[in-house]
Model the fold of this input.
Amino acid sequence: MLGFGVSLLLWLCQTVSAQYTSDDLMSFVTLPNIRAAKFDVQYHNRERVSPGYWFVSPYLHIGPDKPSSLYEPYQIGPHIYDGEGRLIWTGSQLFDNRNVFDFKAVDSLGPEPRLSMVLQYSWDSKEDTGYGVVLTNDYKVERKLPLRRDLGLFDIHEFKIREDGKTALVTIYLSHEITLAEFGRPEETTWLETGGFAEIDINTAEVIQWWDSYNHITLSEGVHYHPNTPPEGHPGWDYVHVNSVDKNDAGDYLLSARFTNTIYLISGINGDIMWRLGGKYTDFEQDFMFSKQHDAKFIESNGTHHIISFLNNASDEEFNEENISASLFVELDTSVTPKTARVLHRYNRPDQQLSRLRGNTQLLPNGNVFTCWSKEGYISEHAADGEILYTANFTSPRYSSYRGYKFEFTGRPSAPPDLVASVLGTDETNMVTTFWVSWNGATDVAWWHFYAQASEFTTPVLIGKTARDDFETTYTGHGYLDWVSAEAVDANGTVLGRSEVYRSNHPDWAAVGYKGKSNPPAPIDPSIVYGVGDHKVDDAGHTSSDAIDTQTQKTIQILGHAYDAIHNISGFFSFLLLLGFFAAVVAGYLVLRGWRLRVYQRLPREDAFLSERARLASPHQD
Ligand SMILES: *[C@@H]1O[C@H](CO)[C@@H](O)[C@H](O)[C@H]1NC(C)=O
Ligand SMILES: *[C@@H]1O[C@H](CO)[C@@H](O)[C@H](O)[C@H]1NC(C)=O
Ligand SMILES: *[C@@H]1O[C@H](CO)[C@@H](O)[C@H](O)[C@H]1NC(C)=O
Ligand SMILES: *[C@@H]1O[C@H](CO)[C@@H](O)[C@H](O)[C@H]1NC(C)=O
Ligand SMILES: *[C@@H]1O[C@H](CO)[C@@H](O)[C@H](O)[C@H]1NC(C)=O
Done:
């Protein structure tokens, strides 16, 4: 009977883990409700890598999720990682697990860096049409800019705060009902989804200037609709699919439209199209081709000569014109007839694949090029001469990041570090206290110093220190330590912040078979055990060996293994659930049809229906 129960359990475990594995997510003792996506990083040459952090915003579904189908714990939203794929900040909880896009650092809004992003319109887009959001570098929302209602939902492609810090550029989508005269069917009408941009005031969200492809870009420029395409209802044919906007000092706008394969320069004076690069009606003599491009940006522009970058090549859901996607840097001369366009640099997607949807490319200050190929968070950095320095991707296919950037950034969270401490041991001789510490959003933490004190009001005593080695750092100290705290220290020894003082968790001593003299055990006075002089901490953060006897070291080892094992089966949470479940099985609940492990995403009940609705509600997300 019991044997049967155990094999049933094993079978169920296997089934559950096959279906719902969460090995692709990080888990932390200090922040149990955070599950950030893990990166797999492959370095080719570390020497030439530029300094900075990765700014990505993983999402699971590109459309907004219904509140009832939002994930739990927090997985998506704005995230900062370091170059080893270690988490620096997750802002998932700030936005309640809603999708954000175009997440990046901004230097033009004052001496302190800011963060900007698009908070996607909500499931009920009548209620919440989305925002451009700006955070301070202590991770507080500083501005939340809506888009004027008559310009549609806040589009997810672009929220670019300009270098003067006064305005921001956003892409817009509108719908118009038109006749099909252009296609020789003047008696028929269809809805047409047009695209353009708006420039908004960064303080008031007032619209300074806006432009729409309606009456500027004809149906024939698009590649997806033909004289015999049947008409569509609202929002209509997505014939241009605008996906980026930029502006030069001359005041003209660079607009990328994926479904016309064209990059447009639009006059800031009268809205005329000044030239088209690419597509059916290019004004340039080009030494290259491109299609289905993303993220066209000025690198330099003096009005007649431009260097622009974009992510090309060369495919979408329906077609692929070429076989490998690439970051392209091209030089345009519009002072000659015909205008000329030539490739300065091309950086191919390292795995020789196509990015069919989404993506962006960024020239870094040292000339390196950072590209987000979008699907599965695939990113790469090339040196200017084309050497691939590294690639990285999420460790499973279920998350993507629309765009990704790299910036140097200083984050100084206003919330203190998070700390958890736990005591274990079987008698006085082998008691240990393990600390787990993290500080969501803090950059530059090089060391953690750990403290304990005899009571709430006595002075903290340094227990030990260790180098910060990941988002969460652990440390084990000798003895039953209570009233514990931790201090974040940078490479120069400057204290960046301190946690609050916490009580240590302890087990039910009787249940764990504690055999010490005083039972239950009492915390030690750290000023006696760790008093000045008889305790030293070396630079590698190891406490001197005479302080910890062999028995204790064994216990530490066992704890370490237990901790790893728990991590391997994806966190305390599942571990406890499975234990509880085991008990339930043994207790005779052998008929468990319909039972499911609580997964990290609450699955919508009518998945197919909902995703279809999401697609209809938000057709222009790629
Ligand atoms: C796209 O990739 C193909 C194959 O590598 C290459 O021949 C072509 O020139 C590329 N086009 C652009 C615009 O990079
Ligand atoms: C723009 O730059 C080009 C190339 O550097 C130069 O030849 C041209 O004179 C410049 N034009 C203006 C208006 O500065
Ligand atoms: C793309 O690859 C296919 C098959 O490998 C080849 O036949 C085709 O010519 C390639 N197209 C381009 C534009 O390189
Ligand atoms: C990520 O890249 C590795 C190689 O670096 C590859 O084995 C793996 O399949 C990729 N994972 C995804 C989700 O694309
Ligand atoms: C440490 O000090 C040096 C010199 O004062 C400074 O350049 C550097 O930025 C500091 N590092 C940190 C992490 O604060």
The longest strand covers residues 185-201. Confidence is low (pLDDT under 50) at residues 12-19, 533-551, 568-621. The radius of gyration is 28 Å.
